[in-house]
Amino acid sequence: MKGSLDRCLILGKSKTATYDVAGFVDSDYSGDLDHMHSISRYIFTLCAGSISQEASMQSIATLSIIEAKYIVATEGVKEAVWLRGLISELGISQGLTIVFWDSQSAIHLTKNDVYHSKTKHISIKHHYIRDTIATGEISVKKVHGLENPADMLIKPLLIAKFQHCLDLVGIQSS
Question: I need a labelling partner for 14 at 20 to 30 A (CA). Which of 22, 34, 61, 72 fits?
Answer without folding.
Answer: 72
